[in-house]
Design goal:
About 40% of the residues lie in helices and about 20% in strands. The protein contains four helices and four strands. Strands 2-3-1-4 form a four-stranded antiparallel beta sheet, covered by helices on one side. The longest helix is centred in the middle third of the chain and has 16 residues. The radius of gyration is 15 Å and the shape is globular.
């Protein structure tokens, strides 16, 4: 399942821990506050539930957005500026050895 995780987190400590958590879970950072992942449904649910729990632990004005996206939409996505290697994230390139 392909999905974006985007956040606006004021606390440096919380933001740092969220970044490390997402990286451990297999999400790929594509911008400072945006991650893209291609993970199974169980990991998606775990991430969604864990981030909701973090959000509920303290009084804040933060937001975390988890947005599922289709592979067709990812393929049609246009990146302006620094390019992102989506093939690595989406596992869409195959190598054929002879």
């Amino acid at each position: 399942m392909l999905f974006f995780v985007m956040y606006d987190i004021e606390s440096n400590k919380v933001r740092y821990n969220v970044v490390k958590y997402l990286e451990r879970m297999g999400c790929h950072r594509i911008q400072k506050s945006i991650f893209l992942a291609d993970l199974d449904m169980d990991k998606y649910e775990t991430i969604k539930n864990d981030l909701a729990e973090v959000q509920s632990l303290y009084d804040n004005h933060d937001s975390i957005i988890i947005c599922p996206v289709s592979s067709d939409l990812i393929k049609s996505m246009k990146v302006i500026g620094h390019s992102i290697n989506l093939d690595i994230i989406t596992h869409s390139k195959s190598t054929l050895f002879f």
